[in-house]
Specification:
mainly alpha, 75% helix, 172 residues
Length: 172
């Protein structure tokens, strides 16, 4: 195994590419939000109070997942540690939390009476499929892939969301 050049020099570790972070965190966050909506929604439990509860749990879980992922990266990387480095690593996890915010908004809005609380599950799932498609499309275009390749990448990402929708239908 090659030696870590930053360990020898004491130089700060390079941050992950922003585009990589957006894709990884965005995909992870959208799938996480979809899975949580599917798991938290039970037949007959679509009240406004339960939607506010669901919104809070999606947000708490997103922050906990971002913290766990960032902390795992921090621990797994060898080398000297500086004060505040763990906070910088956690800062890089913002796309994961950001990708869950549309779902949090839909659930909270249903909890506040902006739309029917019992009819928000599938719109939230489909919104996350659209987010997954968009993330795949954008990152493929950022990587200078052709439009057909970018669309296929978006469809492949969206397939992750469809898996959650299908599993949700089969399990319930």
């Amino acid at each position: 195994m090659a030696a870590d050049p930053t360990a020898e020099t004491g130089a700060p570790r390079p941050r992950r590419e922003t585009r990589e972070s957006v894709l990884f965190g965005g995909v992870y966050g959208a799938v996480l939000a979809s899975s949580l909506v599917a798991a938290l929604t039970q037949h007959g439990h679509g009240s406004a109070a339960s939607r506010r509860y669901d919104a809070l749990w999606v947000l708490v879980t997103a922050f906990a997942s971002a913290f766990a992922h960032g902390y795992a990266h921090h621990v797994a990387e060898r080398g000297p540690r500086r004060r505040g480095e763990v906070l910088r690593v956690l800062r890089d996890e913002w796309p994961l939390v950001a990708a869950t915010l549309p779902t949090v908004f839909l659930l909270a809005g249903a909890g506040w009476g902006w739309w029917p609380p019992g009819d928000v599950e599938y719109p939230a799932l489909y919104l996350n499929i659209a987010i997954l498609f968009t993330l795949g499309l954008l990152t493929a275009r950022w990587a200078a892939r052709s439009w057909p390749a970018a669309i296929l990448t978006g469809l492949a990402d969206a397939l992750l969301g469809f898996v959650v929708v299908i599993a949700n239908a089969l399990i319930k």
